[in-house]
Amino acid sequence: QVQLVETGGGFLQAGGSLRLSCAASGRTFSSVMAWFRQAPGKEREFVAAIRWSADSPLYADSVKGRFTISKNSGRNTVYLQMNSLKPEDTAVYYCAAGPWKVAAVSRYDSWGPGTQVTVSS
Predict the structure, then answer these.
(1) Can you spell out the DSSP letters for 63-110?
(2) Residues with Cβ < 8 Å from 57, sequence gap 6 or more?
């Protein structure tokens, strides 16, 4: 199983930018890396996904044009660059790994502990 650790969360004002990182380790690596988020009282929702191989990323409509997912295969690290942040982006952000590039939570079998992102208005 893949071990995942997220870093880079924080507190910032609306309109700001933040970059999250997810370091992957373990004996085997899943094909797809993704970011999800969960706000208080809400279900966990898909943000973005990317394959380790050359691929077009997948984004949730709510973050298209503002967030960018990228990878550094040599460092086994995936990033989420978040620009033009809004208060509704406030959530715990989770890194996940799985075999399919899909938006469903249930399709990912490895999860990091999460990192908090808080955006004030």
Answers:
(1) TTTTEEEEEEGGGTEEEEEE-S--GGG-EEEEEEEESS--S-GGG--E
(2) 48, 49, 50, 68, 69, 70
What DSSP state is assigned to residue 41?
T
Distance of CA 120 to the CA centre of its chain: 20
The Cα angle at residue 23 between residues 96 and 17, in degrees rounded to 5: 85
Contact call for residues 109 and 97 (beta carbons, < 8 A):
yes
Query: Greatest CA separation found in the chain?
Result: 43
Distance CA 30, CA 109 (A): 9
Per-residue pLDDT tens for 56-97? 899 999 999 999 999 998 899 999 999 999 999 999 999 999
Cα–Cα distance, 20 to 46 (Å, whole number): 15
How far from the centroid of its chain's Cα atoms is residue 72's Cα? 14
